[in-house]
Amino acid sequence: MITPAALRTAYAGGGTIRLTTSGTSGRPRRVVRTAASWVDSFDVVAGLCGLDGSSRAWVPGPVAASMNAYAVCLADHVGASLTGLPGGATHVFCTPAALAALLEEDPAPLTVVVAGDRLAPSLADRAEASGHTVHHYYGAAQLSFVGWGRDADSLRLFPAVAVEVDGGELWVSSPWLCLREEGEPAVLRSSVRHGRTWLSVGDRGSLSDDGRLVVRGRSDAVTTAGATVILADVEAALRPHARGEVVVVGRPHRRLGAVLVAVCTDPADAAALPAVARRALPASHRPRRWSVVETFPVTAAGKVDRDGITAS
């Protein structure tokens, strides 16, 4: 776990820091990056979310998670104080699941910086309706910041970041990249093109004509009835038409190998989205089952637990 004091020491000496991440595989890996790749981004992030020496930051997630360690070090850098409760805080750094739980408590208006998982526009709407200011970013422990916006549908490239799309996969080049990843299975891949280093963690996505960064997530695939289906592509077809959130998983099937199940947080979506699937997806890519949950199970880091959904 990186601390503000350790980061300051490493930065002063031009050194490196190591972060532990389990990613989506659940197996721990270590990400090695220069201290400067964090510290030099602090003023940019502070400016985007309005964090300064008069701010009081609440970071409710585990400090071992890289996004939370970054937030704690960011607060230290700008001189903001840390608080253990939302009461009295001006800023909160959290996952979408933590934001949903926070809204149930109806706290005083906060500046909310959400990361670690996809922030649905509907959840951002709820937060803003309660008086909160909402920021959302997409990144990874290996890549640091890639996109920044109000929610997952409004991301724009973070300053000094370039993105290329190769075969539907996002490749990133920026001053904020890590040096390397240690541990297995390896997630990080690198390439040198146009005189620059580009990294990918396997997330799929695209850049829209109006400059938005569209992130579909890791290219996890399920084989059903002999067809290979990338779950992120199915979710991307359904989510623009959903009132709540929708996650697509594969569940074992004795004859077909697996079947696609769409799990929704809004009952109306389970009724309406099958028609969308029939219009937008080939038969092999349409969920065969639809279910509704009030909330998705989450991992210790606050991300959607797809294995937990699959097992339910």
TrEMBL record:
<dbReference type="InterPro" id="IPR045851">
    <property type="entry name" value="AMP-bd_C_sf"/>
</dbReference>
<dbReference type="InterPro" id="IPR050237">
    <property type="entry name" value="ATP-dep_AMP-bd_enzyme"/>
</dbReference>
<protein>
    <submittedName>
        <fullName>O-succinylbenzoate--CoA ligase</fullName>
    </submittedName>
</protein>
<dbReference type="InterPro" id="IPR042099">
    <property type="entry name" value="ANL_N_sf"/>
</dbReference>
<feature type="domain" description="AMP-binding enzyme C-terminal">
    <location>
        <begin position="235"/>
        <end position="303"/>
    </location>
</feature>
<dbReference type="InterPro" id="IPR025110">
    <property type="entry name" value="AMP-bd_C"/>
</dbReference>
<keyword id="KW-0436">Ligase</keyword>
<dbReference type="Pfam" id="PF13193">
    <property type="entry name" value="AMP-binding_C"/>
</dbReference>
<dbReference type="GO" id="GO:0016874">
    <property type="term" value="F:ligase activity"/>
</dbReference>
